[in-house]
Amino acid sequence: MSIYSNDRPRRKLPVLLALAVIVIVGLIAAAIYHRARFEGEAPKVQLTPDTDAIGMAPLEIRVTDAGSGLKSLTIMLGDTTLASEKFDKPVAERKVSIALPKGTKEGPATLKIVARDASLFRGNEAVVQKQMTIDLTPPTVELIADDRYINFGGVGAIVYQASADTAVSGVKIGQHFFPGFKGAIQGNPDRYFALFAHPYDAPADVRAKLVVTDKAGNSRELGLVYELKNVKYKKSTIALSDSFLQNKVAPLADASARQGSPKELFIAVNKTLRKQNEDKIREVTGKATPKLQWKGAFGQLSNSKVEANFADFRTYTYNGEPVDSAYHLGYDLSVTKRYPVEASNSGTVAFAGDLGIYGNCVMLDHGFGLFTLYGHLSAIDVKVGDSVQAKQVLGRSGETGLAAGDHLHFGVYLAGVAVLPVEWWDAKWINDNISPKLEGRTGEEIAVSQQPRKGTRAKVRKRNR
After folding, report:
1. What pairing do the DSSP bridges indicate for beta strands 347-354 and 360-367?
2. d(CA 27, CA 5)
């Protein structure tokens, strides 16, 4: 046998191995590329709101497919096609806002959603069928008692009757919503009670509206008529010293902010940290408890003096130049150092701990969306979940957070909105505006009781609804 004939088979082996490797790599690459096309999971369907009724408000349907993506989507209500789409390129998500066509009649109907993905062969299919009630009639509402006057930045109270199909109700002003609570009125458990604010930073010409909505999304609004009493809020200028920036501001800032200029340092705390703290306050005080926990007027900290007012607009300067500004959303109350801080009324501890610029802080839930806040404490003697009584000691005053000296920062919040505290210290205001409504008296009955008595019986002043 020649050398040529003996070597020839050995030269074919590397070539065959190379071809095999190429084929295997190609198959792996193809499998990876087409892996999503072989997935076996059907698309997911979500309704917002998740309800069994549909009305004038749009219903949002969200369909997703994390694998091969959506290929088609069909939405039907009874025999009516509300949406039908085929996608040239698969999409991972599709949102459709469904509105009922004109001429739709009330009554039962079946909502059917069919979504198919782009996986190989016929694709995975999701079919969702839900029995719905078509409801196009808004709920009804009747105002029983309201307020004739409301302080700018203060609180009003109303009583109203809403139809049985009401799902959500309350007072809306601007972007703020104050929920109503059923079962609070003595002798009339089907009536609703709502506290609402005309916020300190809301335009003077805007007015609140009573809004009732059923589970189908149908709403009815009723404008509230009241005279807005002007409250003059102060404007002040506060000069920042180097010692205040170093001893009070810097410890609250993160490491990067402490490397910046005095202006950057202060803004990092007064703007950035303040926003985080106020977001936390809104989170805590935005969770309303549907139960009255307070009784009578709230108490000012005993022997205290008001050193700073609610909604005081402060401009901060450094070396004579404006640096930043902020609203002061409470009262600063001073007595002596480490003075026992009392609960202004009965309630439940909703927050107890460090809160940035407010230092050691306690928040009490008094029910119906009403909260009080106690800041800059040197010590806290309660914990979240504790039930407290009026005048019970919550802790000691101090100068934690952004406090320049030992004092108590006292705030009142309604459904996440800071409101004028002094009203809640006023027994006459509560007896005139809050208590009679909770006792079940109508607006006309309250008006009669508040008429001055001068020999003859005063006429009842009828109110425009």
Report:
1. antiparallel
2. 35
CATH number of domain containing 127: 2.60.40.3880
Tokens of 69: 């993506």
Pair (178, 218) in one structural domain: yes
378 and 317 in a common domain: yes
DSSP 332-378: EEE-STTPEEEPSS-EEEEEEEE-GGG-EEEEEEEETTEEEEEEEES
d(CA 344, CA 200): 22
User: Tens digit of pLDDT for each residue in 121-147?
Assistant: 678 999 999 999 999 999 999 999 999
Q: What is the pLDDT of residue 9?
A: 53
7: confidence class by pLDDT, cuts 50, 70, 90:
low
**Residues 120 and 99 occupy one common structural domain:** yes
Contacts of 399 (CB under 8 A, 6+ apart): 359, 376, 378, 405, 406, 407
Distance CA 310, CA 157 (A): 21
Q: Among residues 190, 210, 229, which one ends one of the domains?
A: 229
8 Å CB contact between 374 and 410: yes
Question: CB of 325 within 8 A of CB of 333?
Answer: no
Residue span of the structural domain in which 70 resides: 38-134
User: Would the pLDDT of 268 be above 90?
Assistant: yes
Tell me the C-alpha to C-alpha distance, in Å, between residue 272 and each of 269, 281, 314, 324: 6, 15, 16, 11
CA distance 231 to 240: 28
Q: pLDDT tens digit string along 232-264?
A: 899 999 999 999 999 999 999 988 888 889 999
pLDDT at 15: 65
Place of tokens 């002094």: 422
CB atoms within 10 A of CB 227: 8
Distance from C-alpha of 336 to C-alpha of 304, rounded to nearest angstrom:
9
Which of 299, 360, 355, 354 has the alpha carbon at shortest distance from 331? 299
